[in-house]
Every structure is written in structure tokens, then in C-alpha cells.
Backbone:
């Protein structure tokens, strides 16, 4: 099993004489662990920033969802307008095919009543 | 050792304290006063809007069985304005107001409501300027409002009923009033089915009342539009029937009448006409509400001699008489204290068969037939038999169930009551002393000549939604109104009777047509008896094809007017003839 370590690992010194190849020439091979701590103020500020960040994220999602309402409303209005136009066209179409329209048409005006009618059988 | 509170600890405590305050306030708002704030927020943000269902449309049939529209919905708009926004304090902004006025009047001309711009009060937040304007006009107003930056204008969408064929079948259709309620005819009978169900949209809305897709308590129930209905009425037949009725009544100086055309093979109503009529689109202009009624189903009257065909059918079916039975016509006959005479005295003293009795419409002949039903007298058994045929078989005195408002069942006297006297039942043989409607007579007559099957008359063919026609479930007929052989005999007798009576052969042109005239006295309320000056003229008949299968039945009634007699042969029969000849050509009926 092999494992690889980062050059910037902040570990305690691990003296492996002769095994580590990644130290530069003349560099002190002893490295002391750095004591990094986050103080109470910093941690409070960090927590506050995280909370604010989450809140902003939440509000953004809410706003995004809310904006769908406007798109939906626009589409709904467009649909209503198209339905109204369709109804108008259906009425116009029906009127053109009505008995009154047929009787008043140019074709009907040239028709004459037959003098007599009878059937072949 | 004394411990000192470090600055960082102090800061931590302070921040912690502020957080506690905030959390405390949040608990107060979100827990302690949750309901109160929720109600307050909902009151401000949440609003409901009804999603109006579109009313179902009504269609009829055309020549090739195709479906054509009779009643459609047209989009219309109401223009309203908020007068308050045209004021600067208490002062009307004249320039903007005049721009609004000229813009509206330019588009709508004289369609605005009277005085729309007169009472333009600062306190008013809503004023209607015009109603039922077209979509094109609404678009023009919207455009002008945007161009001229006119504030406070709103356009509310709605629909209005449009009657494509004008006043065709007005009584059968009915109309929709201003409140959206169906009145009379199909519009009222099927109001629930045509109306549909409104939907509901309840959501959080923004300041402009735009619904937002947030909120866990949103309700979105789409509207369920009304069913589109197809009638059995053929618009071409209906048109011809209305024309023939109107012209016929005008020729004879009559003021009103009705016609029904039925398909005797299935009970479908092909036409239902009344005169006078009205335009359903302008129902508000009608002065006499009687014109709204469909008198083919709502007016019961004594039909006169057309009933002889049904009474004769009953007697033949019972075997009381044969078509060849002989009757010696005495002109008048005495039944108890009443003398019953024939209208026509031309064949007094002659001996006629049953076809002759029908042809000359002999009242005395029919009384003789009733005698034969009782074995030689007008017995209780004879009356009971006639009553059974009239009610249980011909369905008189009962509602047909036609899909129309205001149908009346009419009246038949019981054979064993004081009204069921021998005189009354004698009268019933020739259509007096009995109240029936046009539709009842047409349906009964259809059963009498179609082989004895009573089909319930109906006017609904089915529904037509999403371009898909779904036919109404057909009912099986009631069998055995008359035996098949009786029906065939009666049909032949009516055909011969029509020829005997002298109908011009050219009227029928060799087609197989039969029928019976009727002239009935009417009840005079003033005298409490029959009127001496007014009579109803009726005619019932059929047309059949080359195999003698009846294709249509036509029932005509000409109502009496003041001091005017109308009779079956001179007044009702010509109307029948005209419609019958049209039906023969229209249906392509073959000759025998």
C-alpha cells in the first residue's frame, strides 16, 4: 500500500531518515506543529456569516420560486387571450356557414326554383 | 485568586444575549402569536379568485348528419375605470380626463353606458364605462391606454351567448339571462350540465395582485367547463318547418300555431316550431313572456279528430272492428242526454267501411266503434279498454320526459269517475274531452304506424366535447302499443283516407303519405262550455318510403283567434303538405 502526502501538511515532525525525498537541500527537516486556533470572536463571526449565508441562499430560492409566479401569470394571460381569439374565430366561422349566410350567398342568389319536381321511381 | 472577565468573554456573553433576545422574539412571533400573525399575513397576501367555467355550447344536425353550431360563446369585455386616479386632490385633471373620454368614445362610439362620464366622482374607485364590447374593441382600448398613458383603466373578460341561426328553434333552445342562468328550453333543462363547475385559485399575491407560486396552502382547482350538447334537431328541417308554419298562419290570418316533426323509428325530434317566436339574443325586448314557452310540450288542448286514428287503432287491435267493418252513417247519434253529430253531412245515409269513417271524419262512426269495443254498448269495459290504450299504450296523460321545461301531462278522464260518463268517452273517441300536447300526439301516432313501438321522444343526441361526439344512450322502445298487423292496417287506412278525402294527388306525387285532419272546439271560460266561434285546426300525418316504412311524422296545430274558426283540412293540412313535400325531397324518400 502506498500513500502520498501533501507538501503543505501541518503534521508533527515525522523523522524518517533516509525515506523522505521531498525536503529541499539544507532545509531543516524538523518542523514543529503550528498551533492554529480560532478565537471566540472569530468563531462567532464565522458562525454568523454562515448563518447569514444560509439565509441569503434561502431568500434567493424563495425569490426564484416567486418569480415563477410572474412567468406563470404571463403564460396564463397569453393562454386566455388565445382562447378568446379562438372563440371569436369559431363564431365567425359558424356565422359564415349559417343558413342565413348560405341563403344570402352569391351562389344561392343565382339559383331558381324548379317548375316541377318528381322522382325517377 | 480573583478572576477577571476577559473582553472576549464579555463580547461572547453580549452576542449570546442578543441572540437570546432575537430567539425570544422569534418564539414570541412564531409560536406564541403564530395564529394571529398568520391570519394577518394571509389577509394581506392571500386572495382567492374564481376561475369561471365556460358554458357548454349547443349544436344541431345538418343534412349529412354532421354537427353544426346553434349556440356559441363569444368573448366580451367590460371596460371600467378608477375615477379617483384622475383627481389631484379634489381637482379633476381635465386634460387626462378628456383624453380618456375621447379615447373611449373613439373606439366605442355610442356603446358607452348612458352618463358614463357624467358622474366622475373623486370618491368613486370603480365606474363601468361600457359592457359587452368585442375583443377587437378591447384590444384597441388597451393600445390607446398604453399610448396615451391613461391610468386606472381595466378590462374584465366575460362571455355572451351567440345564436348563430338567429331565432331558429328559439323556444326549444331557451336563453341565458344576465345572471348566467338558463331560462326555458334546453338552456334551463340542462342548466347544471351546461354551466359546468367554477374553479378556484387561492394563492399569495403581490402588490399588483399577481398570483405567486409560493405558499404551502395554495389551492388551484381548474374550472370544469360545461358539456357541449348536440340536439336531434335538423337545422334545415327546423328552418323549413318554421317558414311553412309562419307563411301558412299568415295566409289564413291565424296568430299562432305549433308544429312537431318526429322520427317514428327512434323518437328523435327533428323539428319543434312555434309561432310567434323571438330572438333569444334579445330576450329582454320581449313584451309577452308567453312567447318563451315551447307550446308543443307545454300547451295541452283538445286535439279533435286526429285522435280518431289512435282510437281506431285501439279498436282494430282489440278485434272490435275490422277495416272492412261496415257503419251506416245517420249523421247524428244520441248518447244519454247528448246529441253527437258529424261536421261533414255529405255522406249522411251512406254505409261506409272504417277507412271511410276516418276519411269523412265521422264522429258518429267513432261512437259506433266504441259501442263495438263494448260488445254493442258503451259499457264500463269499453271505456276501460279505451282508457288503457290511451294511457298505458299511447302514453297520454303522462309526461314524455322530453328534455324541455314546462312539459304538461295533459288530462284523461278515468272511466269509473263521474267524469267518465258515456258521453265523455264518446267524445274522447274523436278527440274532445281529453287534453293532450302536440308532442304526445306525435309520439303516440308514431307508435301507432311504426309497427307498435312507442319510442320516448327526445331532443338530445349526445355530447360533443374536444371534437368528439358521444351519442346519448338509446332507450329500448316500449313494445306492443299495437300489434304489427294492426299498425300496418291502420297505416294503410290513413293513406287511403287521405286520398279519399280529396287531397290533391300532386301534393303527394305518388309517395306513400297518410294522415288525419282534426277540428276541435275549445273551452270558453266565459260560458263554461265549448266556444261557438273558435276552433282549433290540427293535422297529424306521416311519410313513408318504398317499403312503407314511416320516415317522419308531422303534427300541426293552428290556434284559434278571436271569432275565427280554423279547421284541419283547410288550415292545418296545407301546412302539413308543404312540410311533407319538403321532407320527401330532403330525406330522399323513395316511392312504393
Residues:
Amino acid at each position: 500500500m502506498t500513500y502520498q502526502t501533501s507538501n503543505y501538511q501541518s503534521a508533527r515532525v515525522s523523522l524518517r531518515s533516509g525515506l523522505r525525498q521531498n525536503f529541499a537541500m539544507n532545509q531543516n527537516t524538523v518542523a514543529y506543529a503550528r498551533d492554529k486556533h480560532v478565537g471566540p470572536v472569530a468563531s462567532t463571526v464565522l458562525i454568523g456569516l454562515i448563518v447569514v449565508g444560509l439565509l441569503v441562499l434561502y431568500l434567493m430560492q424563495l425569490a426564484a420560486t416567486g418569480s415563477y409566479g410572474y412567468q406563470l401569470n404571463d403564460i396564463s394571460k397569453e393562454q386566455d387571450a388565445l382562447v378568446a381569439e379562438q372563440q371569436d374565430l369559431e363564431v365567425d366561422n359558424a356565422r359564415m356557414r349559417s343558413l342565413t349566410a348560405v341563403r344570402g350567398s352569391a351562389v344561392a342568389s343565382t339559383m331558381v326554383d324548379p317548375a316541377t319536381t318528381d322522382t325517377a321511381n | 485568586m480573583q478572576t477577571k472577565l476577559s473582553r472576549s468573554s464579555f463580547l461572547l456573553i453580549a452576542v449570546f444575549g442578543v441572540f437570546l433576545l432575537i430567539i425570544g422574539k422569534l418564539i414570541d412571533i412564531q409560536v406564541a402569536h403564530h395564529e394571529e400573525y398568520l391570519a394577518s399575513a394571509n389577509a394581506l397576501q392571500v386572495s382567492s379568485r374564481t376561475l369561471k367555467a365556460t358554458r357548454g355550447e349547443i349544436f344541431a344536425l345538418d343534412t349529412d348528419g354532421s354537427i353544426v353550431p346553434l349556440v356559441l360563446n363569444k368573448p366580451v369585455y367590460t371596460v371600467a375605470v378608477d375615477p379617483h386616479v384622475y383627481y389631484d386632490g379634489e381637482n379633476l385633471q381635465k386634460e387626462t380626463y378628456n383624453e380618456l373620454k375621447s379615447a373611449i368614445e373613439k373606439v366605442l362610439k355610442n356603446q358607452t353606458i348612458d352618463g358614463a362620464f357624467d358622474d366622475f366622482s373623486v370618491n368613486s374607485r370603480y365606474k363601468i364605462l361600457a359592457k359587452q364590447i368585442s375583443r377587437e374593441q378591447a384590444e384597441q382600448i388597451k393600445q390607446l391606454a398604453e399610448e396615451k398613458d391613461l391610468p386606472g383603466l381595466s378590462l374584465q373578460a366575460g362571455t355572451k351567448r351567440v345564436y348563430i341561426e338567429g331565432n331558429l328553434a328559439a323556444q326549444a333552445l331557451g336563453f341565458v339571462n344576465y345572471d348566467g342562468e338558463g331560462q326555458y328550453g334546453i338552456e334551463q333543462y340542462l342548466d347544471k350540465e351546461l354551466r359546468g363547475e367554477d374553479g378556484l385559485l387561492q394563492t399569495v399575491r403581490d402588490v399588483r395582485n399577481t398570483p405567486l407560486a409560493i405558499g404551502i396552502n395554495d389551492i388551484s382547482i381548474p374550472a370544469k367547463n360545461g358539456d357541449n350538447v348536440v340536439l336531434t334537431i335538423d337545422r334545415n328541417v327546423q328552418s323549413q318547418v318554421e317558414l311553412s308554419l309562419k307563411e301558412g298562419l299568415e295566409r289564413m290570418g291565424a296568430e299562432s300555431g305549433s308544429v312537431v316533426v318526429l322520427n317514428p323509428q327512434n323518437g328523435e325530434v327533428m323539428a319543434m316550431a312555434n309561432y310567434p317566436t323571438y330572438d333569444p339574443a334579445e330576450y329582454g325586448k320581449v313584451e309577452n313572456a308567453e312567447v318563451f314557452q315551447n307550446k308543443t310540450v307545454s300547451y295541452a288542448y283538445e286535439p279533435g279528430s286526429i285522435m280518431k286514428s289512435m282510437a281506431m287503432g285501439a279498436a282494430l287491435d282489440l278485434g272490435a272492428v275490422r277495416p272492412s267493418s261496415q257503419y251506416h252513417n245517420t249523421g247524428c247519434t244520441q248518447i244519454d242526454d247528448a246529441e253527437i253529430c258529424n261536421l261533414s253531412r255529405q255522406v249522411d245515409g251512406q254505409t261506409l267501411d272504417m277507412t271511410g269513417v276516418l276519411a269523412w271524419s265521422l264522429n258518429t262512426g267513432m261512437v259506433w266503434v266504441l259501442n263495438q269495443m263494448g260488445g254493442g254498448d258503451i259499457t264500463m269495459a269499453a271505456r276501460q279498454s279505451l282508457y288503457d290504450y290511451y294511457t298505458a299504450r299511447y302514453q297520454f296523460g303522462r309526461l314524455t320526459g322530453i328534455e324541455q321545461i314546462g312539459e304538461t301531462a295533459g288530462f284523461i278522464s278515468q272511466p269509473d269517475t263521474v267524469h267518465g260518463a258515456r258521453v265523455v268517452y264518446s267524445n274522447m273517441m274523436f278527440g274532445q274531452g281529453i287534453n293532450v300536447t302536440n308532442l304526445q300526439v306525435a309520439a303516440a301516432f308514431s307508435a301507432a304506424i311504426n309497427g307498435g313501438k312507442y319510442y320516448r321522444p327526445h331532443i338530445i343526441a349526445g355530447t360533443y366535447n374536444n371534437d368528439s361526439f358521444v351519442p346519448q344512450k338509446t332507450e329500448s322502445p316500449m313494445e306492443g302499443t299495437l300489434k304489427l298487423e294492426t299498425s300496418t292496417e291502420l297505416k294503410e287506412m290513413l293513406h287511403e283516407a287521405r286520398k279519399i278525402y280529396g287531397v290533391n294527388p300532386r301534393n303527394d306525387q305518388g309517395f306513400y303519405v297518410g294522415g288525419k285532419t282534426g277540428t276541435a272546439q275549445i273551452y270558453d271560460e266565459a260560458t263554461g262550455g265549448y266556444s261557438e266561434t273558435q276552433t282549433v285546426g290540427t293535422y297529424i300525418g306521416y311519410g313513408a318510403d318504398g317499403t312503407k316504412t314511416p320516415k317522419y311524422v308531422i303534427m300541426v296545430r293552428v290556434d284559434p283567434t278571436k271569432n275565427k274558426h280554423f279547421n284541419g283540412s283547410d288550415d292545418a293540412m296545407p301546412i302539413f303538405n308543404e312540410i311533407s313535400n319538403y321532407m320527401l325531397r330532403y330525406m330522399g324518400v323513395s316511392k312504393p
